[in-house]
């Protein structure tokens, strides 16, 4: 009775909090996510009418999404945190049960339950008994999804409390995401032309097995849910308070200049902040594993790009640099004429450039080239990243939690998961754009691209840093207030998007949502494939063109992507109030 009362109370609390939270920008983000999720769920249900193997593969993808998505997006939904109930004396199992029931209240569980209707469709097609089995199978399958997500986040959060754990967690997560991005390599390795049989025996496939008459799978799902609930309860009991690394035995960092002090402070933060340790090792692991995956097929053509991929991913991971540091900005604002942008740029460069240079030079030497293209991309990307990281963070700041106030889940650096994800994707696109001129010149004219890359990198580093500096000096108090309160002040400019017609809103959404497709895969990546004589490659149109049209087609796609983003910015540009 007590457990039922606890779970009901927590579910009602979750409903009340969501009812008041989904407003404004957050409501728009949630609505967009719900629409995309509904489309994916509809596609999954459609698979139930076509091929059971494809349906099993679809549920495997949903399982991976539940496990990996919260890890890469700030720790998942924590509307109700265990810390809120620490003084109530609830037992770990009772607390876990209540939090589990509340976890089913939200957009993501509802979308996943919709996708699991494919089990009911599969059961109805087989018979009445199978359809009846599908109902508990859906509930148990959703419970396993949610619990696996909670346990994985708790394990990673526990690992992030120690430096070795943060490093190992970053390496593993980066390798997993890179493997998923290069999954075609492993399919080709094993000669797999259809759906692998292993997807049936993953926990995501047990519900479908039960519907098809393998009754043991239903019991296995129930047992797994109970085991995961127990594991989560045990992990919750260890969540109170985060361990801090010891500083004993470390010599103090001394600096003779203001910028030197900022660099020293930032480098110390990079060495001590476990979240930054995780971000750095994640980017490193992702870059190496993504570039090295084709080696299993005997192709080393992607190895030289490990360094550039590492730079782009590292920039995306630190896109909310000021927000992650929290209200520490007041130290700079209270010092007359002070700015920490240049110091942060040098510190970011000091932490990442040596790794990127070693990766790039070593792997390019192993493969024997292409030296002009790689050496052109390296300085352009480094300069673009060091310029864009403070700039994007200053203009698109997402209020973060002060490091000393982070909860038992170290992955949770902000309450605005959508904002963090949007900043990361924006940073990926912008940093890639900074390397386009150098890459194109290197492809067309060889070593001249290196000079263009150096010039581009220096200009991006200096110019974007100057813009970020001006932003902090003119809007520093307002940014500090955003970080302190989590609320944006009343703007002096009106954002046009709210006043646009439906047609113009549609144009803006299409430009921002699909501009990356012609810009990155059909433009930049296709040009790289053409440069490496990788012709007639999957969906990259330029690789199918006659020799004289390949580069012009790729350049046209780059221009189209930039034009789409430019159109979107022009449509929603701010204007002064009338």
From TrEMBL:
Coiled coil: none annotated. This is ABC-2 type transport system permease protein. The chain crosses the membrane at residues 29-49, 55-74, 95-121, 133-160, 172-195, 215-236, 280-299, 305-334, 346-367, 373-398, 419-438, 444-467, 507-531, 551-572. Keywords: Membrane, Transmembrane, Transmembrane helix. The keyword Membrane applies. The keyword Cell cycle does not apply. It comes from the Bacteria.
């Amino acid at each position: 009775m007590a457990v039922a009362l606890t779970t009901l109370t927590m579910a009602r609390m979750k409903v009340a909090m969501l009812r008041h939270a989904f407003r404004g920008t957050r409501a728009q983000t949630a609505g967009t996510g719900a629409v995309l999720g509904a489309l994916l769920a509809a596609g999954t249900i459609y698979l139930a009418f076509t091929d059971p193997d494809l349906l099993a593969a679809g549920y495997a993808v949903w399982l991976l999404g539940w496990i990996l998505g919260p890890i890469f997006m700030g720790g998942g939904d924590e509307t109700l945190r265990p810390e809120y109930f620490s003084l109530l004396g609830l037992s770990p199992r009772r607390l876990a049960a209540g939090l589990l029931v509340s976890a089913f209240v939200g957009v993501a569980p509802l979308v996943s339950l919709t996708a699991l209707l494919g089990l009911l469709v599969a059961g109805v097609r087989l018979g009445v008994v199978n359809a009846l089995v599908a109902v508990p199978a859906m509930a148990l399958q959703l419970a396993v999804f949610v619990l696996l997500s909670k346990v994985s986040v708790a394990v990673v959060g526990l690992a992030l409390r120690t430096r070795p754990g943060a490093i190992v967690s970053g390496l593993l997560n980066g390798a997993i995401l890179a493997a998923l991005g290069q999954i075609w390599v492993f399919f080709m390795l094993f000669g797999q032309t259809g759906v692998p049989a292993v997807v049936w025996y993953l926990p995501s496939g047990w519900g479908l097995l039960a519907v098809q008459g393998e009754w043991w799978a239903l019991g296995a799902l129930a047992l797994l849910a109970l085991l995961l609930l127990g594991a989560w309860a045990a992990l919750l009991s260890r969540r109170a308070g985060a361990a801090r690394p010891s500083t004993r035995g470390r010599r103090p960092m001394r600096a003779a200049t203001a910028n030197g002090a900022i660099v020293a402070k930032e480098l110390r933060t990079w060495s001590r902040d476990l979240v930054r340790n995780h971000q750095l090792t994640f980017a490193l692991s992702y870059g190496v594993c993504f570039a090295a995956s084709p080696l299993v097929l005997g192709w080393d053509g992607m190895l030289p790009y490990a360094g550039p991929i590492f730079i782009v991913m590292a920039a995306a991971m630190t896109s909310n640099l000021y927000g992650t540091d929290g209200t520490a900005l007041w130290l700079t604002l209270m010092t007359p004429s002070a700015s920490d942008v240049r110091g942060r740029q040098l510190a970011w460069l000091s932490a990442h450039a040596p790794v990127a240079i070693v990766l790039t030079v070593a792997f390019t030497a192993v493969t024997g080239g292409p030296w002009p293209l790689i050496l052109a991309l390296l300085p352009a990307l480094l300069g673009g990243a060091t310029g864009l990281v403070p700039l994007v963070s200053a203009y698109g700041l997402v209020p973060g939690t002060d490091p000393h106030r982070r909860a038992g889940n170290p992955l949770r650096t902000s309450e605005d998961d959508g904002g963090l994800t949007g900043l990361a994707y924006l940073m990926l696109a912008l940093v890639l754009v900074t390397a386009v001129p150098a890459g194109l010149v290197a492809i067309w004219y060889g070593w001249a691209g290196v000079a263009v890359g150096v010039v581009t990198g220096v200009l991006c580093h200096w110019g974007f840093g100057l813009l970020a500096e001006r932003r902090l000096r003119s809007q520093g108090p307002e940014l500090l207030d955003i970080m302190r309160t989590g609320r944006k002040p009343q703007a002096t400019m009106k954002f046009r998007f709210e006043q646009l017609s439906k047609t113009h809103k549609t144009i803006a959404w299409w430009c921002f949502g699909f501009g990356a497709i012609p810009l990155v895969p059909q433009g930049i990546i296709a040009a790289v494939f053409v440069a490496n004589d990788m012709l007639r490659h999957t969906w990259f149109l330029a690789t199918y063109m006659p020799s004289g049209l390949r580069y012009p087609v790729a350049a046209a796609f780059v221009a189209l992507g930039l034009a789409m983003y430019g159109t979107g910015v022009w449509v929603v540009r701010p204007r002064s109030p009338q």
